[in-house]
Each structure stands twice: as structure tokens, then as C-alpha cells.
Specification:
Layout (H helix, E strand, L loop, with lengths): L2 E9 L2 E6 L3 E6 L13 E7 L2 E7 H4 L12 E7 L2 E7 L1 E9 L3 E2 L11 E7 L2 E6 L1 H5 L1
Parallel strand pairs: 2-11, 5-7
Antiparallel strand pairs: 1-2, 1-8, 3-6, 4-5, 6-7, 9-10, 10-11
Subcellular location: Cytoplasm
GO cellular component, one term: cytosol
InterPro entries: CheW, CheW-like_dom_sf, CheW-lke_dom
């Protein structure tokens, strides 16, 4: 059985998972330059070692209550279709492993289910596995 790795992060009080191969790096919250006339969940852009990277607020994107930035707030930088994008999350908790038999489809219907690939059941914990292509586009 092949195990895969995921980055476990928190939005509000729920834990989410993102495949590690989709994750470029995790950085501390930094100054974000606002860009006018963008979607409501786009916070702006950052300068990441000379590259301009758009940043979205994942709480806003998933229609969750927006949390105040704390010392735990992080930006997960992902690369999708050649474009780097930063996603603001409340906290990054760990890197964990799971196997395919621990994934189940989302059990409930709703507007935000399109953003999920499934639910990872690991021991007594549940991680919502993000569908990055749906989150970003």
C-alpha cells in the first residue's frame, strides 16, 4: 500500500489537508500589497524572493469566517499549472502520511463540497482533502 504525504493546516477549528507535492513552501505572514478590482478572496500580492505571487485568503474562498492574523498565521505557497499562488491559513500543524484506503468521498452535499477531493480518516482524526484546481479556479 502506497502512502502519500499531506500538509495538515487549520481553518477556523477544522483541519484540512493538501498533498505535499502541490506545496512549494510555507512562509510566515508578510505584508501584502492590495490590488484593486480583484475577487473578494484575493488579498493581493507579495514579493517572494523577487517573484510576484498572488495571495488568496482561504477562509474567504471557502466562505468560512475570517480569522484575525496571529503568530500562527501562515501562507502556503502552491504551484498550479506553472503559477505560484499563496494561500493564507490560520495555522500549519504537521506533515502526515495517509493511504488511499483512508480516503472517503465527502459525505454531505453543499456549495463548498466542490473544493474537496474527499475526507481522510486517520485514526480518530478527520482531514478535509482540498481539491486545489477547484480552490484556485
Amino acid at each position: 500500500m502506497v502512502e502519500q504525504q499531506v500538509v495538515i493546516f487549520q481553518l477556523n477549528d477544522q483541519q484540512y489537508a493538501l498533498p505535499i507535492q502541490e506545496t512549494q513552501e510555507i512562509i510566515r505572514m508578510t505584508d501584502i500589497t492590495r490590488v484593486p478590482n480583484t475577487r473578494s478572496y484575493v488579498e493581493g500580492i507579495i514579493n517572494l524572493r523577487g517573484s510576484i505571487v498572488p495571495v488568496i485568503n482561504l477562509n474567504k474562498r471557502l466562505d468560512l469566517p475570517v480569522q484575525e492574523c496571529t503568530d500562527n498565521t501562515r501562507i502556503i505557497v502552491v504551484e498550479y499549472e506553472g503559477q505560484k499562488v499563496g494561500m493564507i491559513v490560520d495555522n500549519v500543524l504537521e506533515v502526515a502520511r495517509y493511504s488511499d484506503d483512508e480516503i472517503e468521498p465527502p459525505a454531505v452535499a453543499g456549495d463548498n463540497m466542490e473544493f474537496l477531493r474527499g475526507v481522510i480518516k486517520k485514526n480518530d482524526r478527520l482531514w478535509l482533502l482540498l481539491n486545489l484546481s477547484r480552490v484556485l479556479y
